[in-house]
Amino acid sequence: MAEAWTSQAEELERRFQKGDTRALARALTLVESGHPVGQALLKRVRGQGRAKVVGITGSPGAGKSALTDRLILEARRRGERVGVLAVDPSSPFTGGAILGDRIRMMRHHQDPGVYIRSLASRGALGGLAGAAVAALNLLEAFGFDRIFVETVGVGQSEVDIARVADTTLLVLTPAAGDAVQAFKAGVMEIADLFAVNKFDLPGGERLIQELKSALELSPPRPGGWRPPIFPTVAATGEGVEALFEGLEAHHRHLLEHGLLEAHRLERARFEVESVIQEWGRRKTQGAGELVAAVARGEVSPEEAALRLLGPEAEERLA
Ligand SMILES: Nc1nc2c(ncn2[C@@H]2O[C@H](COP(=O)(O)OP(=O)(O)OP(=O)(O)O)[C@@H](O)[C@H]2O)c(=O)[nH]1
Ligand SMILES: [Mg+2]
């Protein structure tokens, strides 16, 4: 069995390295399901390639996919090869969003310089799953110049995406409640840039003013970066070129201040934490007796955790 896997992995890697997108698709499926062949491939190609990774987050229906679609066009105009990950795209508000994403981004399907993938994976605590970051690493190793990662900003996922991406774009709309959402502790701070999308609707100017005042009060960013605000109409593409320039400016800022490496370290830290969390959850599910002993006060939670994940636990994790 193991031998069959090895040769499968070798064949897949050969095609992957040649730039075969079907091999990429297969690899993503294997990685997402945690299959050993996927893990083996990822281990070998990891660290190849260097993409500008842009996280795009915001409340459901803010226009993240429509804006991503426009940003892809802009990136292509500049000759970049683009990978897109839409993580957990189904939203309770817009419903059927995976289909919506497909339709919105359909025009790129004939373009060999664009690869779009939806992932229906969510982490244990509602944040970004480790599998999504593994998929991102695969896309990067495949050699894309730019990777957009769209996540719905509900709960933990917008904070997670900021740990994983180099540049985080928060998409807001003039719609009631959106500004309140943005002002929630933690969300303002994660955005490197803001897009006030649906600027064709009333209330856009006011939202920009509110954001500006809030930003003046927020703590300074590394290297003195001040998050810019871009009005956009994703439906028509208005403002998207300026927004793209903003993404580029942030990337240059990261380079000039030596901050890119810090972002990569943070992504790796996030991945290790995700693995610990996932293993912990899996092991704890199968440890009813031990958990009961903790409940009775016979074993401390720390002792239990050590028994489940300590040195002897490694072989039992397989
Ligand atoms: N008026 C207006 N409508 C827009 C604009 N951008 C997007 N929309 C519409 O807003 C709706 C949601 O757009 P999406 O791009 O699917 O939004 P999303 O943020 O990706 O949504 P989820 O992935 O479901 O969270 C669609 O009906 C779009 O046509 C805009 O600039 N102006
Ligand atoms: Mg979407």
Automatic annotation (TrEMBL):
<keyword id="KW-0418">Kinase</keyword>
<keyword id="KW-0143">Chaperone</keyword>
<protein>
    <submittedName>
        <fullName>LAO/AO transport system kinase</fullName>
    </submittedName>
</protein>
<dbReference type="InterPro" id="IPR027417">
    <property type="entry name" value="P-loop_NTPase"/>
</dbReference>
<keyword id="KW-0378">Hydrolase</keyword>
<comment type="similarity">
    <text>Belongs to the SIMIBI class G3E GTPase family. ArgK/MeaB subfamily.</text>
</comment>
<keyword id="KW-0808">Transferase</keyword>
<dbReference type="InterPro" id="IPR005129">
    <property type="entry name" value="GTPase_ArgK"/>
</dbReference>
<dbReference type="GO" id="GO:0016301">
    <property type="term" value="F:kinase activity"/>
</dbReference>
<keyword id="KW-0342">GTP-binding</keyword>
<dbReference type="Pfam" id="PF03308">
    <property type="entry name" value="MeaB"/>
</dbReference>
<dbReference type="InterPro" id="IPR052040">
    <property type="entry name" value="GTPase/Isobutyryl-CoA_mutase"/>
</dbReference>
<dbReference type="GO" id="GO:0003924">
    <property type="term" value="F:GTPase activity"/>
</dbReference>
<keyword id="KW-0547">Nucleotide-binding</keyword>
<dbReference type="GO" id="GO:0005525">
    <property type="term" value="F:GTP binding"/>
</dbReference>
